Amino acid sequence: MSDRDVLDALSGMQAAAEDIDAILDAARDSRGEVDPMLVDVERIERHREQYRIALDYFLESYRG
User: Does residue 48 contact residue 21 with C-beta atoms inside 8 Å?
Assistant: First the structure.
């Protein structure tokens, strides 16, 4: 496993996590609490899938 593989996988996980945080921040109400009615669940699911793919790549590369 090369250092580049590790960095690519970690970068993918970080990007997905930051995107999920941004989605949740956009769904906050005036009190700063997440309003479930404003959460874009489909976008979160897409980013969760991207995170899972990057994590699988990291684990596979790490073991290899």
Answer: no
